[in-house]
Give the backbone structure.
Amino acid sequence: MSLIQALLLALGLSVAGNAALGWAWVGAREKAATTVVERDNARSAASACSDATEDLRDLADKRGAEAKKAQAAARTAATGRQQAANTILSTPAAVPGNACASAQVRVDAWLRGRVQP
């Protein structure tokens, strides 16, 4: 083998090695870029999920406050109705001995807008 052939062989091997390294570097760079994009997408999705969870917490707190107000109003209404029921139950019959006549007197009073227990 002559010196020129040996140099050409070495040059060819060097070019092939450099091409293989270049190809590997391009593949690694592409993989790294893909990983960065995937990381950014994951961060974005996590941030959106966190924001949505916070929005749900705010909505739950708002609905909880509304529910407490509604419960307080229902409690007040129930107390008033319970007092009215106790008054009705403790009031003697309008027509002693006749439950139907007593009920008619109460209904007539209610229809006229006067609450008569």
